[in-house]
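*** Fold description ***
***
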Amino acid sequence: MIHTIWNEKYRPSVLENFISNEGFKSKMGGYIKSNDIPHLIFAGQVGSGKTTIAKILAKNIDCDYIYINASDENGIDTIRDKVKSFASTASFKTLKLVVLDECLEENTLVVVLREGRIQKTPIRDLDYKNDLVKSYNIEFNRVEWKPFYLWDKGEQEVYEIEFENGELIICTQDHKWYVDDKNGNKKIVKTIELKNYMEIFNPKS
């Protein structure tokens, strides 16, 4: 059995499987058919399909493309070095596509528990004195709201983790998770180790 994060396992790879209004799909289909695409900005709530449609376009248009998580790589060096280098490299294809995902800014909303109420607040307004975030209590086997602390660890790659109930969490590669090993014992692993861990204790059948 292969364990994969749901949003990747079930992410559509072709436009026919993408759920959206027909007008939008027709417009995207036109780009694919013409093998050409203008500059596009996709905006909307989490789970509305922004990343999915960008990846569908990149995979179904005959082009070379580079995918950058802009919430992690958002410095001028990224544009100067990575994007410029990609754009100037020789290619057998006539089109090059740059996908900048997760372009967060100070008004991006996040979910917190503040003064007993679950609410959304812009990133710029997060307050460690008043805001609580979800944390798992291994002793009592339950999810709890814990104080929010902001630690400056510099720029790090982030990952999306989706649970079976559809809840989506964005975390760093060092974020720690409690998982069960093959004997049912609790084990702490980092996000970056999570996929390998699941493959080790849940081999292909």
